[in-house]
Amino acid sequence: MTISIITVVYNNNQTVRDSIDSVLSQKYKDIEYIIIDGGSTDGTLDILAKYRSQIAQCISEPDKGIYDAMNKGLKLATGDCIAFLNSDDFYASANAVSSIMKAFETMNVDAVYGDIVYVDKHNANKLVRYWKAGEYKNGAFFYGWAPPHPAFFCRRQVYEKYGYFNDKFQIAADFELMLRFIEKHKIKVGYLPEPIVKMRGGGKANVLSGIIRGNWEIIKSFRLNGLRLSPWFFIRKPMAKISQLFIRPGKLSKINIDS
What we know:
Layout: E1 3-9, H1 16-24, E2 31-37, H2 44-50, E3 57-60, H3 66-76, E4 81-84, E5 89-91, H4 96-107, E6 111-119, E7 127-131, E8 152-155, H5 156-162, H6 173-184, E9 189-200, H7 208-224, H8 233-244
Parallel strand pairs: 1-2, 1-4, 2-3, 6-9
Antiparallel strand pairs: 4-8, 5-9, 6-7, 6-8
């Protein structure tokens, strides 16, 4: 199977090289790599130019925001499966994509997700938080659960059938899309209990205004899809994040979280 990996970037010359290198170093070689740039002016385009021969498609033009850019990538993708790797993130190992694609073959599912390793913004070898996603159970979204979107790999036909990102959202369109796919339309998902992506801390979703906006968009996501939202959602969700802080590297000794 071919996988389309899409990286969206705008003025991120400090870390986009790590993202690109992690894709190009994957042992799984049937990869269509697509980069969507929002019209960067900080030297990002110079970096992209150096990799141009190794990128299937690379466009640079103004967009309406990150989810509009992601939708552009979706429209260009031709792979059997699709994944998104943000320009601050990179794969946890050279076998990450191979592990996911093998899971597709053995699990007979529409989507596969794994775990996320949050690392320090300035030191990618320093573990900050480990997001152990766990197995999906029916109705889990209603109580604060969601798979980590950077580690969410989905068949292209699911996007074609159930739609792309809602680009009217600023923070939680990825949550809304997975809610729509998994809880509303009941696609089959499989869980791979290993770290797939290393994710640098920061981002507008983690500041107070972003948290407030994100929570409002989550409420709106349930309403748009005609789904109920448990009062426990906004209690269990932060509690889960707090518990992730106490998973330390010693408990992850059987898996490689080094780049």
